[in-house]
Fold this sequence. Notes:
By secondary structure, the chain is of the alpha/beta class. It has helices spanning 39-52, 76-82, 88-106, 123-128, 157-164, 166-175, 181-187, 197-212, 216-231, 234-249, 252-262; strands spanning 15-20, 23-28, 60-65, 111-116, 119-121, 133-137, 141-143, 178-180, 192-194. A six-stranded mixed sheet has the order 1-2-3-4-6-9, with helices on both faces. It has a three-stranded mixed sheet with strand order 5-7-8.
Amino acid sequence: xxxxxxxxxxSTNALVLERQGSVLxxxxxxxxxxxxxxxxxxxxxxxVLSLVKDDRSIRTIVLRGKGGFFCAGGDIKGxxxxxxxxxxxxxxxxxxxxxxxxxxxxxxxxVVIILVEGAAIxxxxxxxxxxxxxxxxxxxxxxxxxxxxxxxxxxxxxxxxERVGLTQARRLMLTGARFKGxxxxxxxxxxxxxxxxxxLEAQCDTILQQINAxxxxxxxxxxxxxxxxxxxxxxxxxxxxxxxxxxxxxxxEGLEGVAAFVEKRKAYWNEEA
Length: 273
């Protein structure tokens, strides 16, 4: 296990990184482009997620956008400028690479919280669908706009469908329907809606306090079990879960958790404010 206290976070340009105790805040930092996703931003995000993946001292990752805007999706202007010099295979390869970003964020061992204000369009909406907890402001705007641009929402389609179900995914993708925060909650994209930014941050603080009571190693193993449940036959998934249970039960965390319960005290990981 790495110790981020002894490891420097990387220097970034398209992201702003803030470490606050066990929480790593990652800000998209292209407000002039409404935080549209370009290669620099996604490369930096992959680098950061890879660096902290095995660091249990980081328990939560909070992803947010600078300038009061979460993410406008892919950088369409950037796509246009490159279309004259590449063939279909190169376009497909570039598109597929974003799918790997989605997989990585979706299965990151830490708890991932995404805060949406302003808007989450296209790929930004896709990102909102892979957080463990997504909180949105009531006036935040959402849309899967790809088909209105003559392209499919290719790499985010499986993740959106998993989040909202096939029937709603078909409607959202094939009509480009616009909606706001309350409907995002009803669809299952978001878990909570806030009146304003202050309320959004207060709700996030409440979630962080709840995560603080959970052992970071147990959370990481639990996320692995959840995704293996989707991939494996039931018996294989239960075998995988039993091995994770044994690993945690016999770990220092598991021994501490049982002792804390018996002794009616907080476990050591629940001591920070």
